[in-house]
Amino acid sequence: MKAISKYLLAAVLSLCLITGCDEGFDDINTNKVDPTSLAPSLILNKAIISTTYLDGVSTLGMLTYNFGIVQQIITPYGSSLSGGNYNQFNNANTPLVWVNFYRNVIKQVVAVTDQTKDDPMQANIYHAARIWKAYAFMILTDTYGDIPYFEAGQGYISEVIRPKYDPQEAIYKDILKELDEASGALDAAQPAVTTDILYGGNVAKWKKLGYSLMLRAAMRLTKVDQNTAKTYVTKAVAGGLFESNADNSIIRHTAIYNNYIANHLAAREKTNFYLAAPFVNYLKENNDPRLAVMAVRYVGAKGGPEQVAARASSDPKLQIGMPMGYNDVTINTVLAQNGVASLWDFTQVNLTTVLKLDAPEFHITYAQNQLLLAEAAVRGWVSGTAATYFANGVRAHLEQMALYDPSAAIKEDVIQAYLKAHPLDASKALDQINTQYWVASFLDGNELFANFRRSGFPALKKNPYPGSEIKEDFIRRMPYPDSEIIVNLQNVNDANTRQGPNDLNTRVWWDKK
């Protein structure tokens, strides 16, 4: 039988050589299941998804450093969870944003801009990718300082495998230029890219996103270059910012495609992370209705197995934040004075509202925009009153609670009462504005860490943990990964010479005392 099959195949091939019978072979030999390429719009979607806390890489970095530094979420545990809770260097977690962004987000978004830059029919994809690239690079440079920027993501395209590190000042100026050009060039007359994961191809919303990100980037420069900051704040306002919560940049989740922070805290880390006392106390002292949405306490729990629904309470009066400066052993010395039965009895993030499995993740919001405009108004950079922008921003975040779950919605009379009780006080405007920004950016670790360093608010006290490894009161940046030191040493050394030692103490360019 094998011999017959062999001779039959030989006969067929001979006939094809004589007659040229190649018709249909291309179709037969084309794999219609595994794609050999993807549409740039789909690659951009992948970059957007990878920017959020999609996996354990980014999530653990936020939980161990950013949330702890700004004293919103804390863990008493060390080892693999040490970081901002102890003010210590954890070589396993400081590189996580770098690893995820350069290996995924930057590679993908640079590929999109390279594929679409010369194609007029994909101009909107090109400009949307430029906007998202600016957002991704802001997170990277805010986290590490000087980074590969102009040569980044060129490994597959131009074989640049040891990219040079660019000064953060140059990076920010190019980010602002890119946002200005890309936002202005988006064209609503082109066919909508309906596969767009953020806005379904709505160009008007992408424009608002670009200008809203420009406002954020411009305000980063308030300590180092106020002329440039004012110039681009003015451009952002003129271009058109978010007008309501309907414009927010959001990644939506489902029961199948989960919010990863929620998944992380509902599973392996459920008993490890708690709301920090400074955050809980601020909300309690100001009778903030968001506390009842964000928080839950398993009253009287003496261990993880006792953190059950029957003990769960979101009553603001019962919430007790975990104090800063303790580990899982020393925390036992302050249980009685805090009125809790064990460390498992402290308040946690509510996994049925803001961190339920299908809770959305926010990148840039109308609330944040309005609060930044309030600060810009205080500085005399925009028209309108700071008090109005401030009230709009606080209201927007109070209303944003309803986007997590209908049960989390705050009633209108409660919103009005809170706004009436907390008007902007001109004598402490920057403190009030940026402390509200701290609340409004809850669960956005990158932005929390950045704006806290930029503004100096809220006026948090130093984490008193006795094993602190930092010289200043707070961590200022993440060090470069060991992998960079191994494969790109000269460029790392150049950055360190320019910026300062590769440790937790060195300030990035815009973070001046």
TrEMBL record:
Position of the signal peptide: 1-24
The keyword Lipoprotein is annotated on this UniProt entry: yes
Xref: InterPro entries: SusD-like_2, TPR-like_helical_dom_sf
Keywords, alphabetical: Lipoprotein, Signal
Gene3D superfamilies: 1.25.40.390
Pfam families: SusD-like_2
Name this polypeptide is given: SusD/RagB family nutrient-binding outer membrane lipoprotein
Classification of source organism: Bacteria, Pseudomonadati, Bacteroidota, Cytophagia, Cytophagales
